[in-house]
Amino acid sequence: MPQRSLEAIVKKRLKQYKTERIVLLLLIAVGVILTLAGIGVYFYVGKLTLVQKTYATPPKNFMMFELRLLCDYARALGVIFSLIGVVSIILALDRLAFSKESYRVALYIDSQKEE
Question: Which parts pass through the membrane (predicted)?
């Protein structure tokens, strides 16, 4: 019984390797895009002239205070997007390495079974 389940696991691993690799590479690409977008948002918010004017004047009314708060929130979102992108890249690369090793082991077991 254990031998049959091992054969089933090996066949499943050999069959799913390409699909898993494509999905992980797409996840890495999304992580790169998310990281670049987060960095862009963080630096673009500071370059807006409206933001520069609101930080130059003291907050006399509620709208100026809300605008400053919104700009700070946008910068924080930029940092969060960048961190999420970096974490997703790291996790996808780790899973990709694990997937590659499990595929090699499955190939080795499959070749030993044939001999």
Answer: 21-45, 73-93
